[in-house]
């Protein structure tokens, strides 16, 4: 039997009066399996040493979507339009995961919040609310799900272009925050028509990391969405 790569996923974390919990939509784990990997939720481990010991056993990582990134991570006070930042325990947990994968070059796919986290953890910043802070933006969010769609233009020398084989991809959109200042270690490889960042890759091409603002886990009937997960599985199998 061929061994499938083990892919760790960062779940959301919520307090509850009876039981705090980690939660992740099944579309993420379904997508990993469809692409040929085995998914594993990374629990919110308190000890950095224990977390590192777990990640050492993984072949790849997915930093998933979720609630808004707390503005404290990029040195800003919370705006009234950022009413519900993610739980502090998730923030510290995801930061520890990222620091490990960046140092050890663990194959990683970062999605929506995950992309924003990578940019911020490397020193970048965000727009706290697109409609309030961006002039004449496209519609990037309708309600609480993926009804909004728009094109993303890719740079031709990017990994993302190599994976998709397309200069423009149609993407779902469900975010009201966006990358603002780009971290120096990253390069923009995908933008929407209003100029907002939709995809990032490391300047150092030896780091196997791909970050997108949309949700490919909800697009796996579309070849582009599935191809992103297949890329991760391929790199995690190396």
Topology, please?
Layout: E1 6-10, E2 12-14, E3 21-23, H1 26-35, E4 38-41, H2 48-55, E5 60-63, H3 88-104, E6 108-111, H4 113-121, E7 126-127, H5 130-133, E8 148-154, H6 159-164, E9 168-173, E10 178-179, E11 186-191, E12 197-202, E13 209-212, H7 223-236
Parallel strand pairs: 1-4, 1-5, 5-6, 6-13
Antiparallel strand pairs: 2-3, 7-10, 8-9, 8-11, 11-12, 12-13
Helix pairs in contact: 1-7, 2-3
Explain what you see:
The chain is α/β, with parallel strands linked by helices and 238 residues long. Helix 1 (26-35) crosses helix 7 and helix 2 (48-55) packs across helix 3. The strands form 3 sheets. Strands 4-1-5-6-13-12-11-8-9 form a 9-stranded mixed β-sheet, sandwiched between helices. A two-stranded antiparallel sheet has the order 2-3. It has a two-stranded antiparallel sheet with strand order 7-10. Strand 11 (186-191) and strand 12 (197-202) form a beta hairpin. It has a single domain (6-236), classed as Class I glutamine amidotransferase (GATase) domain (Rossmann fold). It has helices at residues 26-35, 48-55, 88-104, 113-121, 130-133, 159-164, 223-236; strands at 6-10, 12-14, 21-23, 38-41, 60-63, 108-111, 126-127, 148-154, 168-173, 178-179, 186-191, 197-202, 209-212. It is globular. The mean pLDDT is 92.
Give structural attributes.
single chain; 238 residues; Rossmann fold; nine-stranded mixed beta sheet; two-stranded antiparallel ribbon; 7 helices; 13 strands; 29% helix; globular
